[in-house]
Design brief:
Blueprint (H helix, E strand, L loop, with lengths): L2 E7 L8 H4 L7 E2 L2 E2 H8 L8 E5 L3 H7 L5 E3 L6 H6 L2 H4 L5 E6 L7 H14 L3 E7 L8 E4 L5 E5 L6 H4 L4 E9 H8 L15 H8 L4 E7 L10 H13 L1
Parallel strand pairs: 1-4, 1-6, 4-5, 7-11
Antiparallel strand pairs: 2-3, 6-10, 7-10, 8-9
Length: 244
């Protein structure tokens, strides 16, 4: 299976006080290493030349810290879908699988990425999304399924009904895509939302609307699902990394 990874690492990290620390979020350190280090270590089964870093805020520092990786620039930052659009030049003509993941999720293990990709290869789906459960409440989108248990759509936490809030299956935001299906769908994303941004979460619904299969790979993730968005989450991440 031919794989490319697109690692989204463009965020400023306002709640992480990035300006005060003079570092973009993905270069903030946990246990002496940048957050992005742990993500790239978990992706070391994918060749460096096939792992694209999408950076925006203080991007020169990101590219300087990881100089061997292909790079794409997202400026301005207009959402996760837009971030993947910015990596298009690295994906045009590629006929394999594209893994889209995040540079601020240092706890996610290699086995989860590999499990997602293996499941995707077996499923024959145009898109396989990673979903997970966590014992703690997290403001993540919920995965809705139809009466057959197949993927229906994602509902963002702020839009959930009380019944949907009770769903434990969370959208992690990490996907394996057929590259051609991804690039075609990116052209159809619209920014008609409150933030005027282009969301990658719209792509599975676009594919499903075309009659293409969307699969879901579900794992018991617990702390692995945590992204680092606040100093408190950074401290919690360090605690988990210390435990090993």
């Amino acid at each position: 299976m031919s794989i490319k990874a697109v690692v989204l690492a463009a965020g400023k990290g306002t709640r992480m006080m990035s300006e005060a620390n003079n570092l973009p979020k993905v270069l903030r350190q946990a246990c002496g290493k940048p957050l992005l280090h742990y993500v790239l270590r978990a992706l070391d089964f994918i060749p460096v030349q096939n792992t694209v870093l999408v950076a925006g805020y203080m991007r020169e520092k990101v590219f300087e810290a990881f100089p061997d990786y292909p790079r794409a620039v997202q400026d301005p930052q207009l959402g996760t879908g837009h971030a993947v659009m910015c990596a298009r030049e690295h994906l045009e003509g590629f006929e394999g699988t594209v893994l889209v993941c995040y540079g601020d999720m240092p706890l996610l293990r290699k086995e989860v990425y590999q499990g997602l990709l293996d499941f995707h290869a077996r499923s024959g789906a145009a898109c396989t999304m990673l979903s997970g459960t966590c014992d703690e409440y997290l403001p993540y989108g919920r995965v809705l399924r139809d009466e057959n248990g197949d993927f229906l759509r994602i509902v963002e936490d702020r839009d959930c009904t009380p019944e949907q809030k009770a769903i434990r299956e969370l959208n992690v935001g990490i996907y394996a895509f057929d590259c051609k299906a991804l690039l075609t769908s990116l052209d159809e994303i619209r920014n008609n939302n409150a933030q005027n941004e282009y969301y990658l979460t719209d792509v599975p619904a676009i594919l499903r609307g075309k009659g293409q299969r969307v699969a879901v790979y579900t794992a018991e993730l617990n702390e692995q699902i945590l992204g680092v968005n606040t100093p408190e989450q950074l401290a919690l991440t360090e605690k988990y990394l210390t435990r090993g």
